[in-house]
Design brief:
By secondary structure, this protein is of the alpha/beta class. Helices cover 44% and strands 11% of the residues.
Length: 459
């Protein structure tokens, strides 16, 4: 069977690291199984959905390395949803309800006070045509519920009805439809809740596997029933439910708050594979390691390694992975980005090899390029005794040509003439050359600077 998965975000905000986890679980599953990935925007909420968010989501996924085989918008597919709704009505599986929100809440409180489960009692099924006409005359518009298959002959005698599936993440799962209310699929204003368009699209687009957060486990029993009502018994896709990501304090992530959005992480200089590695491996039995590319990550990816409990996301872990990736980036891979940072010329490759091990982000290379080409930074300064020491040390600079051995040749002489050694010897020279107390190997920096530029840094 050819694998087809989908990621269906609502374009009501920028996607965050938790959304990226779902997208990555689907993408890696498709990549590992030679399948296709569909990006489908759940934009039926026309008031809150924005094209700008849809564009940003597509851009964020592309930046992560996720390449959809197909992109669709639910707002352009209403005709197919109308047809499916009519099919369910004609089958007696979608029925009109006229209760207001206040009436439903009162009924719910009464049930709870009697220690009964707050499940909808299907009172609307008893309405006569005359009663429906009266409601219409009052100006009431119906919402529409799907009749769950949790009874034998009489819908008012609900029985236990277990839906089972072998979850590709969590293993065998069950949901008892007898404990659930008939779900509302269409609101009073005629707009659709997520459930029906999602099922209809999954059928129409040939989705074979639905992988999403474990907050949807209960929904899956209902959706399988709708799948079978529209497509036939046993025609539902396979489901998988991964654990969720929370903040370090245990709070859930929200698109509205913008917490840990992919856009913000990208703007902060995080590497896409740092995000992809952490978002997909955190909360699994696999070690959280920085993977260099999607193919390597997919080779390690196993969806059923996901833990049952939620995982706390610590941004500091992201920067640890980011440093590792930056330190291993080849010049060929990073050269276009260096050019955009204004780093160009004959010695850029040597420069990158020199400073990459000192970077947390690629864009920090611009600071070091300024140090190499324009002069020391102003981060650190020398005191009086060190100034005198460095001035004298510069008198002993060897003649060119310079190589990596020049640093040792120079400092051996300075050590002998000054009597200094260790930190007292090396730190003032580093600060004089770079303006910083830490940085790349000075043995590699000297040949890059050359004798003339080095002398220009004499205090």
């Amino acid at each position: 069977m050819s694998v087809t998965v989908r990621f269906a975000p609502s374009p009501t905000g920028n996607i965050h690291i938790g959304n990226a986890r779902t997208a990555l679980f689907n993408w890696l599953f498709a990549l590992k199984n030679g399948g296709a990935f569909i990006l489908r925007f759940d934009d039926t909420d026309v008031e809150r959905s924005k094209d700008e968010y849809a564009r940003q989501i597509a851009e964020d996924l592309d930046w992560l390395g996720i390449k959809p085989a197909q992109t669709a918008k639910q707002s352009e597919r209403f005709a197919i949803y109308h047809a499916a709704a009519q099919t369910l009505r004609e089958a007696g599986l979608l029925y009109a309800c006229y209760e207001t929100a206040e009436e439903l809440e009162l009924r719910r409180k009464i049930q709870l006070s009697r220690r009964l489960p707050p499940v909808y009692d299907r009172a609307a099924l008893k309405l006569t045509e005359e009663q429906k006409a009266e409601y219409a005359a009052e100006g009431r518009k119906p919402h529409w519920r799907f009749l769950l298959p949790n009874f034998d002959a009489d819908p008012f005698v609900v029985a236990r009805h277990v839906v089972e599936w072998d979850d590709v993440v969590r293993g065998p799962q069950t949901v008892d439809l007898g404990s659930l209310s008939d779900p509302v699929l269409i609101r009073e204003d005629g707009t659709y809740l997520y459930t029906l368009p999602s099922v209809v699209d999954d059928i129409d687009m040939g989705v074979t596997h639905i992988i999403r957060g474990d907050d949807h486990v209960t929904n899956t029993g209902v959706q399988i029933a709708i799948f079978e009502a529209l497509a036939g018994k046993g025609q539902a896709p396979k489901f998988g439910h991964h654990n969720l990501i929370t903040t370090t304090s245990g709070e859930g992530l929200s698109k509205r708050s913008g917490a840990l959005s992919i856009k913000s992480l990208r703007e902060e200089g995080v590497e896409p594979m740092a995000v992809a590695s952490l978002a997909s491996l955190i909360g699994t039995s696999s070690a959280v390691e920085a993977k260099p590319d999607m193919a390597t990550l997919a080779a390690q990816f196993t969806p059923d390694s996901s833990a049952k409990s939620s995982s706390k996301f610590d941004p500091e872990e992201l920067w640890v992975l980011n440093k590792e990736l930056v330190h291993n980036l080849s010049y060929e891979a990073v050269q276009p980005r260096l050019t955009r940072l204004g780093i160009a010329g004959g010695k850029t490759e040597n420069f990158w090899e020199l400073i990459r091990g000192n970077l947390s982000r690629v864009d920090e290379a611009a600071d070091w390029w300024g140090i190499v080409t324009r002069g020391p930074d102003k981060t650190e300064s020398l005191d009086g005794q060190d100034v005198a020491f460095v001035r004298e040390a510069f008198d002993h600079l060897p003649p060119e040509p310079w190589s990596r051995e020049t640093w040792k040749t120079w400092t051996d002489v300075v050590k002998k003439t000054s009597g200094r050694k260790g930190r007292q010897l090396f730190m003032p020279l580093r600060i004089a050359l770079t303006g910083r107390s830490s940085g790349p190997e000075l043995a590699d920096l000297l040949p890059l600077l050359g004798r003339e530029e080095t002398l220009a840094r004499r205090p």
